[in-house]
Amino acid sequence: MTNTIVVVGAGVSGLTSALLLSKNKANTVTVVAKHMPGDYDIEYASPFAGANIVPMATKENARWESRSWPVFKRLTEEVPEAGIHFQKCHIQRRDDDLRNTANATFPDSTFDPNPWYKDLFDDFREHEPSELTPGYDSGCQYTAVCINTAIYLPWLLGQCLKSGVVVKRAILTDIRDAKQLSHTGNAANIIVNATGLGSLKLGGVLDTTMAPARGQVVLVRNESTPMLICSGTPDGRGEETYLMQRAAGGGTILGGTYDIGNWESQPDPNIATRIMQRVVAARPDIAGGKGVAGLSVVRHAVGLRPWRKAGLRLEEERLDDETWIVHNYGHSGWGYQGSYGCAEGVVELVDKVTNVAKSKL
Ligand SMILES: Cc1cc2nc3c(=O)[nH]c(=O)nc-3n(C[C@H](O)[C@H](O)[C@H](O)COP(=O)(O)OP(=O)(O)OC[C@H]3O[C@@H](n4cnc5c(N)ncnc54)[C@H](O)[C@@H]3O)c2cc1C
Ligand SMILES: *[C@@H]1O[C@H](CO)[C@@H](O)[C@H](O)[C@H]1NC(C)=O
Ligand SMILES: *[C@@H]1O[C@H](CO)[C@@H](O)[C@H](O)[C@H]1NC(C)=O
Ligand SMILES: *[C@@H]1O[C@H](CO)[C@@H](O)[C@H](O)[C@H]1NC(C)=O
Question: What is the mean pLDDT of residues 156-176?
Answer without folding.
Answer: 95
